From TrEMBL:
InterPro entries: LIM_Homeobox_TF, Znf_LIM. Its main location: nucleus. Pfam families: LIM. This is LIM domain kinase 1.
Amino acid sequence: MSRRDQRFRRGMKARCCDCECILSHWYYERGGQLYCKKHYWSRFGEHCHGCKETVSTGLVMVAGEQKYHPECFTCMSCEMVIGDGDTYMLVECSRLYW
């Protein structure tokens, strides 16, 4: 049993190193630091190239090395959503065109 698990058993309250919220028995750890779910994913998770928000679950569209929420996978010219199976062109590794 780790020291952190022992702390929880003794009733000590661990806190997220970003927001200082009290963590339950479910937490994320990286580099010896403890995080709540929100701050772990915002710091270490994948980010949508369109809206810059965290992409943590659900459907993900991929173009080159960029990841997008489906609603953010849009043409740079006409702003139409590019659906699964639609033809698109990726210019300069980051700009999408339908």
